[in-house]
Amino acid sequence: MASTCELSKLAYSKIILHAFKYPHTAINGVLLANEGSNSQSVKYVDAIPLFHHNLGLAPMLEVALMQIDSYCRTAGLVIAGYYHASEAVAEMNPDPVSQKICEKIAEYFPNACLVLINNRQLSMQMTQTSLSVIQYSDGKWKVKDKENLKILPNNEAALNSVSTLLSKKLYKKFVDFDDHLDDIHQDWLNVSLKSMID
Amino acid sequence: MEKQYKHWEDVRDLLRNWREENCRQSEDVVDLWNEVLANHFGKLGDEGWLVLEQVFIAALDCHNMEVANFCLSKLNQEFPDSLRVKRLKAMKYEASEKYEHALDILDLIIKKDETNAASRKRKVTIYKSQGMIIEAIKELTDYLRIFMADQEAWMELCDLYISQQEWNKAAFCVEELLLHSPFNHLYLQRYAEIKYTQGGYENLEVARSYYSQAAKLNPKNVRALYGLMLTSVHMASNSKCPSQKKKERIKLSEWATNQLSQLQDSNDSKLFSSQILEGMGNLQIGNDSKN
Fold first, then answer.
1. Does residue A60 sit in helix, strand or coil?
2. DSSP secondary-structure letter at A186?
């Protein structure tokens, strides 16, 4: 039962911009899908970046998820996945914190995907998607094949688009939830960046 | 980095600022060096060596080996027997992932000078880069037995323990930091976060009191305000909470929510608070009764 996992250009760009803004720390965030999505072939339409410090601490994670949940209800979306980049460049396995968070997400959205960034494949000129996906289904973690991960409209267009964003250093203006907690006026929805990404 | 710094003196002052505040602005440092300071190096005098060191480390951070090599060769020329420059060489090996070479150099430095704290700390980062967190923790705890007053090290150890979900040990590190600086709202807030994550009614109580202290010292600490709100609401809805305290808790959470809405200059502050309070029941990630 090969189910596909699709990422919109917006979601993919946000993941990569987040990774580039904080290359020296671990980062994480959630992925949003349209309400009523089929969990077999899920399409992630947006990504909300969460933290770059102490990803394992619960209180701010709860606050973030509550606010994102509220936002989702107004926008007709659901929290359906999670992404993570490890601090160490070579680390390719999800850490216990990521697994726990994704398992929690899977309680509300079955077969939630955990997208891991392959740090080594990142570069200013992106040539590879640099992502690997594992899916939580039936209480087990299963690695998804590369063919089942697609970036819309197609991998090449998305990579070119992201490379352009990186060359313009747009990641400097990117805001994650940690930035919002440091300065409450910063917009974790990155609305102003959205038009530049599309 | 929006402003264009044309004058080399401005750039020099900016880099000095970043050095003093220990800011990690590696990309900007390297860009400023390439565009401005490299041509005016001779005018920097003795500060030039500090700038070279700063640019070297920034270049390693950006993996710009050309600039890094240039800086290192200049420093080596001027200070050939320096242990400080040797440590920079070890950092270069570390950046190239040649960890064995880096460790050899660092061990040599430590043998020559047992009080060299920075080299010992670099050993910790070498283990951390390779994902060997347990070894990094061991190395760091050995270091802290000798250099007990190093706050940066205690904070790093706290982060390492949090990544391993060893909440008690992480809390102990923050307690050490609080001994040094009991009025640091960030340490108080961090302690509260760890206690909250541990879960359980008693830990929530402790978290609430530390969040309160943090919010008292800095009413603009958003994390402390959110924490106050979370702990108060969780405690008020817990069966262990005595009824007279319930009213206090709810009032406290309302106060925190109002503070937050004020900070956000939100016009619909009632909507903001009801949204958050509504979501309270759904999501609870922390270990409730486990640890």
1. helix
2. S
Mean pLDDT of B221-228: 92
Strands A77-85 and A27-34: antiparallel
* DSSP category for residue A145: P
* Contact yes or no for A144/A135 (Cβ under 8 A): yes
Chain-centre distance of CA B129, in angstroms? 16
Q: Which amino acid is at B6?
A: K
- Residue B290 above 50 pLDDT? no
Which tens digit of pLDDT belongs to each residue from B12-47? 999 999 999 988 889 999 999 998 888 888 888 889
pLDDT value, residue B258: 82
Quote the CA–CA distance of B264 and B225 in Å, as a whole number.
12
* pTM confidence score: 0.90
DSSP code for B213: H
Q: What's the rounded Cα separation, in Å, for the pair B269 and A16?
A: 34
Q: Are B201 and B240 in contact (CB under 8 A)?
A: yes
Amino acid at A141: W
Interface list for chain B against chain A, based on CB atoms closer than 8 Å: 1, 24, 61, 128-131, 159, 162-163, 165, 190, 192-194, 196-197, 199, 207, 222-223, 226-227, 230, 260, 263-265, 275-276, 278-280, 282-286
Query: Between B197, B222, B264, which is nearest A57 by CB?
Result: B197
Would you tell me how many other CB atoms lie within 10 Å of the CB of residue B8? 18
Query: Nearest CA of chain A to the CA of B230: how many Å?
Result: 7
Q: What is the pLDDT of residues A58-103, one digit of tens each?
A: 999 999 999 999 999 999 999 999 999 998 888 888 888 999 999 9
* Residues of chain B contacting residue A90, judged by C-beta atoms under 8 Å apart: 130-131
